[in-house]
Amino acid sequence: MKQWKRVLIAGTLLGSTFTAGVFAEDVLQRVEAYLRPDFNIVVDGTPVKLDGPTLIYQDASYLPLKELGNLLGANILYKDVNKTIYINSRINPEQVVDEKDLTTDEFKFKNPYSIMVNYLGAEYPLLLTNAEDKNNISNRLLYYRLSDLRKMGIETGGMKKSKEMLTEELYVTETELKQFVKQMPTQTRSSSADRYVVAGELNTKKLDALQNYIKTTMNSQNKDNKDRDRGFKYTSKPIIVEKTENENEYQYIYYQTTYFDKYINNRYVRTKLTLTKRELDSDGYTINTHAMTDLNEQLDIKERRKTEEEAKKVLDPVMP
Q1: CA distances (Å), 255 to each of 108, 148, 192, 209, 222, in order?
Q2: How far is residue 112 CA from its own chain's centroid?
């Protein structure tokens, strides 16, 4: 008993991971419990160290809900407005997922866009798109990006998947998704009229810098171009900005239309954006772009090489 630390706690013993707020006295319940710093925690065979010790109340063990949930790959969300804790199982990004290859077809982007959606109480970014085939024939299906669904905790193992040819990412159709979930993600109120989101970044200063950069580069005319009199210009439609694992680095996908004389060229572009603080006493950031990839050109090169390899197999004699 000497090893135990006696404490007084209030509430439901969920661990002090949420702001308690102000409650009426009749809501709180004063109880007697004990902290056990000598207890060890092992998750999936690996010892883990929590920020606080295990709490014992009426011979039952209690651990901080949010911290334990994160270790188990769950998404924990508390909303003070309705005093509700949402626990949504999800797939840890580092977890190896054994999924059968159920890819049934390939398609190309057709009017892709990103939005914020609400799913089981939490908000997530989601990339959506219509599709067209290799012959540029469109269908009426709406596709959801698979990686976004997995971050919501949706089990995708048995779903039929489609491969987007430009990005080589997997998607599922809305019709397919409805067969596996009881509740569909619903769009939240959006403050952007451009139908794109900046995913993974919460810093308001960095968000402002990214959004201002995109706004100023969406529609431009290169005044220094020697062919400016022939009408060289371009317009860009942002699709999604996603924070990468590197600090202050983001992946940016957009759709660009280039006008030059009488010619019009459309392409999807993927690039990296890097934020750099301007000065020590400034909250502003400068943005540099690098690793720009023309996704349409990249696909054309890949298809051309594939055709050449197939032709070579037909022409070359088969070795015995």
Answers
A1: 13, 20, 17, 20, 18
A2: 15
- CA–CA distance, 237 with 247 (Å, rounded to integer): 25
Query: What is the pLDDT at residue 95?
Result: 41
Q: Which candidate, 125, 113, 128, places its Cα nearest to that of 152?
A: 125
Residue 182, C-beta contacts closer than 8 angstroms, at least 6 positions apart: none
For 74, which DSSP code? Answer: E
pTM beyond 0.85: no
Asked if residue 172 lies in contact with residue 155, where contact means CB atoms within 8 angstroms, the answer is no
> Which residues, including other chains, have CB under 8 Å from residue 185's CB and lie 6 or more apart?
117, 118, 119, 124, 126, 152
pLDDT 10s digits, 178-234: 999 988 999 986 545 567 999 999 899 999 999 999 999 887 654 454 545 556 788
User: Is the distance from CB of 211 to CB of 198 less than 8 angstroms?
Assistant: yes
Closest CA to 290 of 268, 275, 301: 275
Residue 261 region, left (φ>0) first, then alpha (ψ -120 to 50), else beta? Answer: left
Give the tens place of pLDDT for each residue, 259-280. Answer: 887 889 999 999 999 999 887 7
Q: Which residues does residue 285 pair with via DSSP β-bridges, in sequence order?
A: 277
Tokens at residue 102, please?
């159920």
Say how far apart CA 143 and CA 170 lie, in whole Å.
9
Q: How many angstroms separate the Cα of 19 from the Cα of each of 77, 107, 122, 230?
A: 12, 47, 17, 61
d(CA 240, CA 194): 10
- Which residues, 6 or more positions from 38, have their beta carbon under 8 angstroms from its beta carbon? 3
What pLDDT sits at residue 23?
52
Please state, in angstroms and rounded to a whole number, the distance separating the CA atoms of residues 301 and 290: 21
